[in-house]
Amino acid sequence: KQEVTQIPAALSVPEGENLVLNCSFTDSAIYNLQWFRQDPGKGLTSLLLIQSSQREQTSGRLNASLDKSSGRSTLYIAASQPGDSATYLCAVRPGDSNYQLIWGAGTKLIIKP
Amino acid sequence: EAGVAQSPRYKIIEKRQSVAFWCNPISGHATLYWYQQILGQGPKLLIQFQNNGVVDDSQLPKDRFSAERLKGVDSTLKIQPAKLEDSAVYLCASSPGTDYGYTFGSGTRLTVV
After folding, report:
1. How far apart, in whole angstroms, are the C-alpha atoms of residue A50 and residue A106?
2. Cβ of A25 under 8 Å from any chain B Cβ?
3. Residue A19 CB coordination number (10 Å)
4. Given A43, A89, A104, which is nearest B106 (Cβ)?
5. Among A40-44, A49-53, B2-6, B106-110, where is mean pLDDT lowest?
6. Beta-bridge mates of residue B12
7. How close is the nearest chain B Cα to the Cα of A65, in Å?
8. Using omega within 30 degrees of 0 as the cis cutoff, is the peptide bond preceding A82 cis?
9. How confident is the prediction for chain A on average, in pLDDT?
10. CA distances (Å), origin B11, targets A72, B3, B14, B99, B104
């Protein structure tokens, strides 16, 4: 059974720092992995989608990597800003699922001005 | 393109009352999902539709929850009767297919008192 873990559960860093959020999964047979952002009381915003054949995806100051063999993905945020404060969730689509995603519990990120 | 539309944004009801949520996915997206997200947790899939057929409703509490997607477009999720533990954000998402990520609506925050 696929399980997704995100560590740490919360992270607080000063503005301007580069930071890495971690996501690990137990079964390497995945179809894709997606990173989302969630602001308090809001829905989820898709940030990056990495297909199983890809190693990384980039969007602006965000870079997501995928290492299936080790069951890990990282989300790198460069030059963090207070507006980046949110909860970041990763979700894995197992290779044998009907599009169902397996979710991590998220990392709550606070960027201090 | 227009995003996933959900209504209402907020709802407060008393336990044992009924409530309904509405979702209109992105035009052309065949797959529609309803998720329940309890505070501090990742989303939990309630039901997945492919066009107007149910693909997965294994985690839907069918004694009180029901969902339909008539004509394969918009969808409604109903709770009757509501319990205190149903307090959560109900998220609707849609996807065009297996190689694409999900797009989420802004969610409906339900409080049962």
Report:
1. 18
2. no
3. 16
4. A43
5. A40-44
6. B111
7. 16
8. no
9. 93
10. 38, 21, 10, 34, 19
Instruction: Note the pLDDT of residue B51.
Output: 87
Query: B103 pairs with which residues across the strands?
Result: B94
Q: Do B101 and A49 touch (CB under 8 A)?
A: yes
Find the largest Cα–Cα distance for chain B: 41
Q: How far apart, in whole angstroms, are the C-alpha atoms of residue B1 and residue B36? A: 25
Write down the residue that tokens 């065949």 correspond to.
Answer: B30
**What rounded mean pLDDT belongs to chain B?**
92
Q: CA–CA distance from A53 to each of A78, A101, B75 (Å)?
A: 24, 18, 33
**B95, B103 Cβ separation under 8 angstroms:** yes
Residue A54: phi and psi, rounded to 5, are: -100, 160
If 0-12 CB within 10 Å is exposed, 13-18 middle and 19+ buried, where does residue A69 land? exposed
Using CB atoms within 10 A of its CB, is residue A83 exposed (0-12), middle (13-18) or buried (19+)? exposed
Name the token pair of B109: 């925050």
What the block records as the tokens of A54 is 């890809």
Task: Give Dmax (Cα) for chain A.
Answer: 44
Is residue B78 classed as helix, strand or coil in its secondary structure?
Answer: strand
Element (DSSP H or E) covering residue B110: strand B108-112
Q: In 3-state terms, what secondary structure has residue B98?
A: coil
Contacts of A88 in chain B (CB under 8 A): none
Q: How many CA atoms lie within 13 A of B23 on its CB side?
A: 32
